[in-house]
Design brief:
Length: 432
């Protein structure tokens, strides 16, 4: 029987394990540290942070100076606020072409950057009273402007403008509106808006402005109210029916959330949403967002404002906005909305204010607040409304003009007992 040799094939040895990564080495080093040492190191880190905080608080503050540069070059406004005279001089220098026109004897009160209260002032022609107030609020710059014209050809005029991306367009348009409406040959509000848009585009082209502004202008006569507006500054009329005061909005906000404005922008190839992904979403994405939430599908903050894309502006109609109007299609337009209402004697007051008011007040709540202030004999209803909006948490610039159709009742003073007794005529002189 032959011999059989069994041969065993040698297998290759297994490959060596891969070298540990940096994260694994860090984990191993941490695991090897005794617990007491880890606690001591944590305590040392906390102590170093406390020492740094204490030493930092004892050193003088190195905060940056108040920001004054707007997104669009032009008139610069710091948070501390220069004197009104200096601001007026700067505005007059930047609006030479507009300011050279005659004033036509119309009384104008312009408040491009006012933060001081304006008490109710009677209008000579009608006897109505008007108050206005504006504050910078929590914003780094003041971009609002408002004006009051008394005795213009179209009536007594109240205007509120809210700048977007700067104060150049709002201040320029405020002055341009006053000059245009002060002209006895001034045309309709719609034609005035077209003229002001033409002027601000010319100024923006010459001075490289990029900002825009909303504008709500109300012309009040003894028989009617006419309103023209672009953007989301709002006019609300309070009327009395019996013992109740009703709030009637004379304007509708030109915002991307409005169905009509959204349809117009999408027909031109634009989009409306809280970010660009939501603005140009497909029908399938919108359906999914309605089920699981837009914040998941589009990664948006549900509290963010809707904007127009391209451009990312929060209003669909505005004056200025040269970059958005230089390229086709023109998604943001300056065509104003128009409204009119006949006066029937039930009118109590008219509120014209920027969105800094309406972000925290509903139309009804604002009218109720102003009614209570006027019933108490307040002559600074606009200031009270603005400060109340700021206290409610409004984060925008806040401006308001209030036209009271009845002269405010002064607060009660000393009681005249002779008249309170129902007596008439002169009191008898005391004789000895």
């Amino acid at each position: 029987m032959g011999r059989f040799k069994l041969r065993f094939w040698k297998r290759d040895p297994p490959p060596p394990p891969p070298p540990p990564t940096a994260w694994e080495r860090l984990q191993a080093s941490v695991a090897s540290v005794p617990p007491l040492v880890a606690v001591l190191m944590s305590a040392l880190l906390v102590a170093l942070l406390l020492v740094k905080k204490i030493l930092g608080s004892s050193q003088p503050s190195r905060k940056r100076p108040p920001p004054s540069v707007l997104e669009s070059p032009g008139v610069k406004v710091s948070r501390s606020g220069p004197d009104d005279d200096a601001v007026g001089a700067a505005m007059r220098a930047s609006l030479e072409s507009v300011a050279q026109q005659p004033s036509f004897g119309v009384t104008a009160r312009s408040f491009p950057l006012s933060t001081t209260p304006a008490a109710a002032t009677p209008l000579a022609r009608t006897g109505w009273s008007v108050s206005s107030f504006a504050m910078q609020g929590r914003r780094k710059t003041m971009e609002d402007a408002h004006f009051i014209l008394e005795g213009a050809a179209c009536g007594d005029v109240l205007g509120v403008l809210d700048g977007c991306g700067g104060a150049n367009a709002s201040n320029f348009c405020s002055m341009a509106f006053q000059r245009s409406l002060s002209d006895p040959s001034a045309e309709s509000l719609e034609a005035t808006f077209a003229k002001v848009e033409r002027l601000v585009i010319q100024a923006a082209t010459a001075k490289n402005w990029a900002d825009a502004t909303t504008a709500t202008v109300c012309a009040v006569t003894e028989n009617a109210i006419e309103v023209a507006w672009v953007g989301d500054s709002r006019a609300v009329l309070a009327t009395r029916s019996g013992s109740k005061v009703a709030a009637t909005a004379l304007t509708t906000d030109h915002r991307p959330e409005d169905p009509g404005e959204k349809a117009r922008i999408r027909a031109l190839g634009g989009g409306c949403g809280r970010n660009e992904k939501e603005a140009f979403a497909t029908a399938k994405q919108n359906l999914r967002a309605s089920v699981v939430g837009a914040h998941i599908v589009f990664n948006v903050n549900r509290k963010s404002a809707h904007r127009v894309f391209p451009g990312a502006i929060a209003v669909t109609r505005a004056l200025g906005a040269l970059p958005l109007k230089s390229a086709a299609p023109k998604l943001v337009v300056a065509t104003p909305g128009l409204a009119s209402r006949a006066l029937d004697g039930s009118e109590q007051f008219l509120i014209v204010a920027c969105d800094g008011i309406w972000d925290v007040f509903s139309d009804k709540a604002a009218c109720a607040y102003v009614e209570a202030a006027l019933d108490a004999g307040a002559t600074d209803a606009a200031e009270r409304l603005v400060r109340s909006a700021h206290a409610k948490g409004s984060t925008d610039n806040i401006s308001a003009c209030i036209l009271h159709f009845k002269a405010p009742t002064p607060p009660p003073g000393r009681v005249d007992r002779y008249e309170s007794a129902g007596l008439r005529g002169e009191a008898e002189a005391k004789t000895d």
